[in-house]
Amino acid sequence: MQKLRTVIVDDEPLAREFLRLLLSSSDNVEVVAECSNGKEAVAAALELRPDLLFLDIQMPGMNGFDVVKTLQSDIMPMVIFVTAFNQYAVDAFDLHAVDYVLKPLDEERIRRSVERALDRLKSGADISFKTPLIGAIDAISERMAADKPRDNSSESLPDGMKRKLLVRDSGVVKVIPFDDIDWVDAAGDYMCVHAAGETHVIRSTLRELKAKLDDRLFVQIHRSTIVNVERVVSVTPLQKGGSLLHLSDGGSLKVSRNYRESIRNLFQ
After folding, report:
1. Sheet containing strand 52-56, strands side by side
2. How far is Cα 29 from Cα 6, in angstroms, rounded to an integer?
3. How far apart (Å, rounded) are the C-alpha atoms in residues 76 and 49?
């Protein structure tokens, strides 16, 4: 039976130890790494390509939601959120069929979550793991924004916005110049826009956003990914076709075989 190659991500050492002991006792799980923060989680996902993340949400710096936004859909593993969030967050997870375990951790709940992950892995379906995760994150963000006093200071915007993207974040409208965008990742009807060290989630399809961008600057490298070619510093071929783009911020993106010609033409 195929084992779930699993990464544990939690800033609390005792929580990591508890999860490791529980998961290591399962015949269906192989713990391949433990991470104490979001940056380590992203690096482990890129290097190890695990099947499953047990991902704590509330971590300093890059939290669990940031990890999901940062990872390219093509390499997004299944995620079981570990959370002490309140009920409206739990409701959002249930609505979008995202699995989670609540703190304090319960052995039986963890076991059921692993079984669900195994069932999804066995199904072999070509599904996006990122789409429901982003849907749940967006629902939680909207609720949190609704609970805050609204700031309308950015609502009155000047004309001439053709080369700028408007992003609502916690009731504030942010203006992002297209030239600041590093890359874009699609998850269903949501887009994760990576710009100037931040990731913004907006409701849009890839086709809608691509139509706004300069096709001399932004190139599609995967069915769900567009990259700003000016951010690419090197290209590494992959054994099974496709390639890996290394970006100026230290990140990397996978180019699928179907789009390798577009990259090859740019970097001949």
Report:
1. 29-35, 4-9, 52-56, 78-83, 99-102
2. 7
3. 8
Whose tokens are 């790494």? That residue is 33
156 CB neighbour count, 10 Å cutoff: 7
For residue 155, how many other CB atoms are within 10 A of its CB?
A: 11
Reported as a single tens digit per residue, the pLDDT across 25-75 is 999 999 999 999 999 999 999 999 999 999 999 999 999 999 999 999 988
Residues 5-27: pLDDT tens digits?
A: 999 999 999 999 999 999 999 99
CA–CA distance, 194 with 108 (Å, rounded to integer): 38
- Under a CB-based contact definition with an 8 Å cutoff, are residues 77 and 50 in contact? yes
User: Which domains, and CATH codes, for the chain?
Assistant: 4-144 (3.40.50.2300), 164-266 (2.40.50.1020)
Q: What is the DSSP string of 144-183?
A: HHHTSPP--TTTS--S--TTEEEEEETTEEEEEEGGGEEE
For residue 257, which of 218, 229, 222 has the smallest C-alpha distance? 222
Within 8 A by CB and 6+ apart from 103, the residues are 15, 82, 83, 84
